[in-house]
Every structure is written in C-alpha cells, then in structure tokens.
Model the fold of this input.
Amino acid sequence: MCVWVHPAEPALSTIIASDKEADKLFVYGLDGKALQAIWAKHPGNVDVRYGFPLGGEKVDIIAFNARDDSKILVYKVAITTRQLERVDNDAISTGENYGGTLYRSVRTGRFYFVTTSKSGLIEQYELTDDGKAKVQGRKVRSWTTGGQCEAAVADDEAGVIYIGEEDKGVWEVSAEPDDAPPGRVTITLGKNGLVGDIEGLAIYYQPEGKGFLLVSNQSRDNFKVYQREGKHEFIGTFAISGAKDTDGLDVTNVNLGPRFPNGLFTCHSAQDNRCPILLTPWPAIAKAFQPELTISTAWNPRK
Done:
C-alpha cells in the first residue's frame, strides 16, 4: 500500500491498497471511505512517485506488480477527482514476480520499478513515456538473493533499495542500474526480536538523510524501527491494536490536515475476513518510545 499526498489540499490525500483475494486495487480517503475500486488480477505491492514526465506534463504515478500476468501496471492520479487512470502500454512484462517498489534516481531523474519474486530473482525496469503518452518498461538489470522476497522499498535520496528476504533479513542494494548487485544483508533475522516472514517495509523520511526504516515483523504482529542512515541501528518495537499478520504498510511525515497534522502510519491487518486498513497518527507511535522518535513535517515528498 502507499500514501498519495495531494499537492494542494493535504486533507484530500489518499491511501491506495491492493487486495489480492478480491483481485482489486482500492483508493480510500483519509476518512476511510472508498473512492475507487479497480479490478486487477492478483495485485502485489503498490507504490507512488511524483513528477513522472508523460504526454508533455508531470504526473503522479501509482505502480504495482501483477502476479498472475507477470506484468507491471502503471496508473496516474487525476488530481481533481483523486481517481486512478491506467497509463501503461500493457506490455511491461516481467519474470515471475511477487512484490516490488518504485524508485526515482536523484542522480539521473529516471524512474524505475523493481520486482521481487518467490525464487529470489530481482529485476529492475526503467519506466519511460513511449511517445504516445503511455508508460513503457525496459529491463535494465537482474540478480538473485537466493530466497523468497516480497517486500521492497526504495530510498530515492540515498540511492538504495531495501528488499526483504523472508527467511534471511533485509538486503540493502544500490538502486542505480549501472552499479553492481547484490549488496549486503543489513538487517539480520534473529536479532532484536525479528523472527521471520519479513513482509512490509517503509521509510519515515526526514531532511539530511535522517529518519527511520520500518519493518513488519509479521509472525509476531509488531513492527521494528531502525535508523534510516548509517548502519541502521535498531531503535525499538511497536505494535498497533488490531494489526495482525501485517503484509503492506506505509508511513508519511507530511501534515495531512486536521485528522493527521503530524503524519500517519498505515498498515493492513488480517485480523478478520474484512482485512481492514488501519490508520494511526504518527505521534501516537513516536511518543511511545523513550526517547521519543522524531515528529516533524519538514520533509516534502514532492521536492
């Protein structure tokens, strides 16, 4: 899942989540109301990036991996309606995929989608305008971790991708396609209560490369917090009431209006058959730590 931040009215921001069982992609307002439901066969991980050049303008894109069709699907956000409109050319075919993440290179300005898989195969695709206002994809590199991977998140500013190998830990890999993989395991399973089945990953951004890397510790129904920078030192653990077997998650520091003036944390829960999406004000999490985690709206995802 991902949080799309409205460019002018933050309170109109949305949560976009995939439902693999329903074969749908859902768009929710911050009040929890469904704004749109899109049929998508077995959708995987959903991500957002801003300022993608398409058809002579800059647009906000939502992309995800389609597991059964082995494709990457791309949508643009209509700002006025907050609805999603499909804009890929229906030809971004991948190998077997399981999850993925978007990445925008600060170095080159180029956009990519990185797919993960059950076999450990990782593939990186550059996304561009095909000249007809449709998004096309070109594979630029691939490598393998050796084990099943689903979760992934890219730190655009740092130029790295974090990939969760479910029975090993979190890999840190250079996101630039010209750099050599495979990187290194920077967060190891079995340490600090991280016990396996790594699923969701998210980054709480702050200026100057600071912030936090969040990891869903699915089999223990809690979340681990690590430093974003440096060696990713472990900070602590938190849990959300009602969150069980969490798969997808996201977090933002942005002021999203009266409901979430200091950002929010959102996650999926398999507590019951409804598989609810939970929204938690970031300060409720940050203030539970000693010392408290950073609470700041200074970082802007659109810049």
